[in-house]
Fold this sequence. Notes:
Elements: E1 6-13, H1 21-27, E2 31-38, E3 40-47, E4 53-60, H2 67-75, E5 78-85, H3 89-98, E6 104-107, E7 113-118, E8 127-133, E9 156-164, H4 167-177, E10 181-186, E11 189-193, E12 199-203, H5 210-215, E13 220-229, E14 239-240, E15 246-248, E16 258-262
Parallel strand pairs: 1-4, 5-8, 9-12, 13-16
Antiparallel strand pairs: 1-5, 2-3, 3-4, 6-7, 7-8, 9-13, 10-11, 11-12, 14-15, 15-16
Amino acid sequence: MPLPADLDHVAVAAHRTADLWPCYAGDLGGAWVGGGDTAGFYSAQVQFANGMKVEGLEPRRVDENDFLARFLAANGPGPHHLTFKVPDIHAALVELAVAGYEPINVNLAEPSWMEAFLHPKTAHGIVVQVAQSSGAEWGEPAPDGLPAPRVAVPATLDVVTHLVADLAAARHLFGTVLGGTAVAEEHGAVLLAWPGPGRVRLVQPEAGTPEAAWLGARVGRLHHLGFTVATPDRLAAAVVLPDGTVEVPPEANQGVRLRLTPA
């Protein structure tokens, strides 16, 4: 049966989280949630007008755990994982096993934050984190130099668009297992929704298209984050594509492509 899960945030890896905030806090008006470090990494989040969050990750205490440093060495900055929160991680682990998924790096030692992961080879090209939280995991205040919002109204993070090689299999994981409800469908694509604001659009690109070439031989690859913002063409590094789409290309935004819709 589907997990009672909710998509909580998208995590982005960078060499310095400070390099993420000019876009996500400044250009898009994300509000500081909090941050903190543990073995291997520092993480911090900003939240958008609809409640969705972007989490920044940077390597810290690498001598204790080098997983994030290795990720950046292999892939460079870019999307790292999607986090789904569940009310009972023990029950979630049972349901994942029944569905044929074997979580890795299961950590149930700290009651305030218990977690498990699905490897990107299993989770269609993206790390999936399943976590149970007490709601008290954040506490660090905003850092000095956090950019002030440059928009009068904060943006909304509307959708994560993820390209996959096998739409049916990806839909099984994100829909049947992780509880996403199909709210829109078209040829080769489905939009899944969770109880909160989280939305994932799974797309199996047609052969011969630029999207298929970009996906290549991968089982999946996060293509872009879709935001609604009042004046998208005013964002730093925004470009207008021939079809009128406003985009911040990944090479200008720490490896993450943004697609921007005017409010």
